[in-house]
Amino acid sequence: xxxxxxxxxxxxxxxxxxxxxxxxxxxxxxxxxxxxxxxxxxxxxxxxxxxxxxxxxxxxxxxxxxxxxxxxxxxxxxxxxxxxxxxxxxxxxxxxxxxxxxxxxxxxxxxxxxxxxxxxxxxxxxxxxxxxxxxxxxxxxxxxxxxxxxxxxxxxxxxxxxxxxxxxxxxxxxxxxxxxxxxxxxxxxxxxxxxxxxxxxxxxxxxxxxxxxxxxxxxxxxxxxxxxxxxxxxxxxxxxxxxxxxxxxxxxxxxxxxxxxxxxxxxxxxxxxxxxxxxxxxxxxxxxxxxxxxxxxxxxxxxxxxxxxxxxxxxxxxxxxxxxxxxx
Amino acid sequence: xxxxxxxxxxxxxxxxxxxxxxxxxxxxxxxxxxxxxxxxxxxxxxxxxxxxxxxxxxxxxxxxxxxxxxxxxxxxxxxxxxxxxxxxxxxxxxxxxxxxxxxxxxxxxxxxxxxxxxxxxxxxxxxxxxxxxxxxxxxxxxxxxxxxxxxxxxxxxxxxxxxxxxxxxxxxxxxxxxxxxxxxxxxxxxxxxxxxxxxxxxxxxxxxxxxxxxxxxxxxxxxxxxxxxxxxxxxxxxxxxxxxxxxxxxxxxxxxxxxxxxxxxxxxxxxxxxxxxxxx
Lengths: 328, 280
Prior knowledge:
By secondary structure, chain A is mainly α. Chain A is built from 12 helices and no strands.
């Protein structure tokens, strides 16, 4: 059966690449449907009458917007393969490094939230399943449901309301603040405002998602026949859980984690907006408003690419740990 | 029905109560609202709750309670229409994919992979941002994203049904594919679909509100919960009600829908195992 593993790896890899190519086509397609293009937005936006049609045409040719779609797509793809994401229409800087920089800022929020998701989501999910229907389980269930139902902008707003507005511990918006002039207390409060609160805001929702899914899969596992058999054989509960159930229940957790990467990304976007955090979500939002096509396309591709990659890794990991899946 | 514990009954009742409450508000909103949602009372700007304005007024002096009630319809219409559209499309795609299998299934599932690869909120933001905000665009994009996840759920549930003998029997009888899918396969999937619809509707509310919050909701003057929260956020210090009122409504509705989904799952599954009887 081990001979199948490389084949499975290659198939999955090609599959993910195909998905990425189709995604890039969809992105290019949707952008074509945009009413009013970037040139209109850039030049006409200032003074509608002052700009002649000629100037618009020149600018359009300069940016390559007069080309047919397939040619625009071809140019985009060929430069992408050379690692070039194109130049931003509005800022006139290369898109690639800009995305890289913003991505780094976003990852500072996303990675700790992701860690919290794995540790607390799976940990509390397992605990809740082991104590199924106990008061502890009910409490965990109710709190996690509330966390899912609460829009992240409410959690973020409450943080800002309580700590910035009421207590004055942190600045409410910090993108225009000069960090170098801070004293220790200001630095600490800045750290909380800039990183800890946004991070908790993202984590609250995704921890709850993972927790509920883990609890469900673990609870199901505990009801399966082999667990009953083990109970009848007289094994202690802790033995059964540690030796048999945990591993089986943690396999689905890999898939659960991968699926929830999408929520991490979505959460990052909203949270960056609430806290005016200069990450990739705010970059995308600004690019959409200013019709900056290369930035929109690049950001979307990187974001979806990250998600596809996470799912690929999960699939491969799953197949290594559970050989049965490769047969299907 | 027979096997429900009192706690499960309570969950179901609370869930359906909340859902019914908001549905009634969405339908009869304009008649229930104490005042006009758009009238600006310039003598009563940024006020707290009072007997005249039960939830206070926003920075333009508009009645928060009236806006909340009127906004219920906008938010629920977007969420419900997109969920309904996605349910119809997703069920059809899932059924076809499971029934025909083979190459049809392969192509459908590959397309599904593509749509699932977009993080919901980011994709919605991209499409609406590019095409322009509006109720129809909002409904279409959320429906598009949810279609793939519903198709996936329906397909995996249908795979277990299409192999059953009575489906073969119907085929041999010469029934049309439409008849087999709708009359023989689909009724078995109702419990799965209903529970999935509840989950998706809850998400749809959150996505709709989040999109409005970042400024990609239905254009003004149509009030909706996310837009209300977004408009009020700069004045949260002195005037928190315009933010908190719609947020509380969102939490209440989404929790209620989830209760309803959980309750229905237990109810429908209990009924089904009751039918099958001996398998347990």
